[in-house]
Amino acid sequence: MLLPKKVKHRKWQRGRMKGKSYRGSELHFGRYGIKALTAGAVSSRQIEAARRTLTRFIKREGSVWIRIFPDRPITSKGIEVEMGGGKGDVTHFAFVVRPGRIIFEMDGIEEKVAREALRRAAHKLSVQTKFVKREE
Fold first, then answer.
1. pLDDT per residue over 15-73, tens digit each?
2. Structural domain of 103
3. DSSP three-state, residue 111
């Protein structure tokens, strides 16, 4: 699973997921990709599950690029813990995806296979996505 070696602050505040993503909204490495249509936090487990699905379906042919990295610590308190007592412990890391962000890119395989592989990978993510193709 992906997680940062070091973070500046151990626990972050939640913030808001408003706006569109202008950075990382175009294909740079591959010919095919999936782009987020909704905002949400994608955990490192979801990214890893989607990556495994992609590589298994394409039988390790072609190339896969992961365009997001989970750097945001997510905290939660234990079950049946009363109010107060401070913020909970860090449970996992996530990346906040906004609409327009490219999540995965692929190249070196035909479009039909890439479309199906990315469709299967998109089922593992907590945001709605669409298939995008580089116009040449």
1. 999 999 999 999 999 999 999 999 999 999 999 999 999 999 999 899 999 999 999 99
2. 36-74+90-133
3. helix
Between CA 112 and CA 33, with CA 119 as vertex, the angle to 5 degrees is 75
Strand partners, 103: none
Spatial CB neighbours of 133, under 8 Å, sequence gap ≥ 6: 31, 32, 111
Helices (H), the chain: 44-57, 111-122
- The CATH number given to whatever domain includes residue 101 is 3.90.1170.10
Going by C-beta distance under 8 Å and a sequence separation of 6 or more, which residues neighbour residue 46?
A: 124, 125, 126
How many domains does the chain contain in total? 1
Number of H helices, E strands in the chain: 2, 7
Distances (CA, A) of 99 to 3, 13, 31, 36, 105: 23, 21, 20, 5, 16
**φ, ψ dihedrals at 51, nearest 5°:** -65, -45
Is position 68 within any domain? Answer: yes
Strand partners, 107: 63
